[in-house]
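Input sequence (382 aa), recorded before submission:
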Amino acid sequence: MGGGIPIGRIAGFPVSVNWSVLVILWLFTWSLAATLPNTVPGYPAAAYWIAGGCGAVVLLASLMAHELTHALLARRAGIAVAGVTLWLFGGVTTLRGEAKTPRAEFRIAASGPATSLALAAIFAGVAAGLDELGVAQIVVGVAWWLAGINLLLGLFNLLPGAPLDGGRVVRAYLWRRHGDKVRAAVGAARAGRVVAFVLIGIGLLEFLAGALVGGVWLAFIGWFLFTAAREEETRVLTRQSLADVRVVDAMTAHPHTAPGWITVEDFIQRYLLGDRHSAYPVEDRDGSTIGLITLAQPRAVEPRQRGTTLVREIAIPLPRVPTATPHEPLTALLERLTPATGGRALVVDAGHVVGIVTATDLTRLIDVYRLAQPRSVAGDGH
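Predicted structure, token format:
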């Protein structure tokens, strides 16, 4: 999905929007502006577009409410919430952990669709009330549209396949029935692939029947769900194969360090050009580690400024770098890795950096363990 633009905090959760929100904002505005003339005729074109824009903004707020409900229930279950992001397909709540029980999993998953369905009922009641009060029909039409879209979103999210909320409900059910969290997650992901194929098939039929835009859009959603479900199954099986692996098994020990007091130009010439590494812990003059530098930071410095800019000035500060202890489970560290550091983490023991975990280390380890544990990767649940 990519990073989002931070817009603040709601209920204590960091909230951001992806650039693709502009796409859905336009689509919702256009959809409503094109629908209203058929249901409430007699208004000027500008009024329909204004109503469409207002309705689209309220719908985005409804999507945010859907995601915030997930976040609130997750926090209540003791799961840290990294943030909430709105994007092309609605929203996503990023959790730093997983539910401890099937009951908690069910509550977190079902809360989003329940919110959307409750909003559908509220908007329907508002529409009926406004109609009784004799409010302008264009306003009533927007309220009915919001009721219908929230109803559709609630029902769509209940489809029984990951990564949809309905898939999480399926996972909670399978987890409680079989007592195997991995088997439940794999089953929900595979159910998601079935749902994706159905949506793609319906989309193709609509396309052939002449509904070009609707058919392509539905097929596109199906393709996205298929990809996401496949990635989720891979992630679950990977975590299973690494269940007994410790950070020390994946790290590169005694990594080369870069002095924070040299210039970026010196760093490039003395380290990057003469070494195979692409990430270095940054040391201060007293030997303490103050951050991490990767290829991304020097790349962002203008060539003419590299001779005057110090490494410590562009390094990622240590508080923003994921850290781990050598004997910590690797799966726990995976939850803390972030794109900001390129998926890298520093390994600290007794206050000293003793290793670094990189994407290359993880990829190699995952490939090795997949080869060594074919039954786990098969995901047969036995």
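Checked by second reader. Confidence is low (pLDDT under 50) at residues 375-382.
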